[in-house]
Design brief:
This protein is mainly alpha-helical. The chain has a single domain (25-148), classed as Globin-like. It is built from nine helices and no strands. It has helices spanning 2-17, 28-31, 34-51, 53-56, 63-80, 92-96, 103-119, 124-135, 138-141. The chain is globular, with a radius of gyration of 21 Å.
Length: 149
Amino acid sequence: MRLASRLLVLGLIVSVILPGQDQPRATLYERLGRYDGIARIADDYLKGVRADPQLSRFIGRSTDSLVRARQLLKDQLCALTGGPCAYVGRDMKTAHGGLGITEPDWALNMKYMAAALDKSHITGSDKDQMLALIEGLRTQIVEKDAGKQ
């Protein structure tokens, strides 16, 4: 009986230490470094966007607007990647409506997001998955193509 109990305990320990194929893969949120990783990516992305004259025109100028936009971006990225955050901002079409965001603007946006991911050493399928999530928002954000400016 004691031997059977010990073997059962040993089996449980091994099953916890050696993950099986049936265990779920970590969410993208977890693979990006959880909230701190998302915050780092968002901050690096915003630094690039705010420094670019083509894109900085879309960013609010007051300190309050900048702080609010930063927090909303963190919450949105957290929620998009499977994290526990709730995005409480407006939908993308409403939030970006009337800004006249073009395809070239969008391409720059994606460049800065990719650079932020690179800076955080997010590569391979995790980087591709994150960029695909952002790319999925394009149709709600881009209002016109470069030829219609």
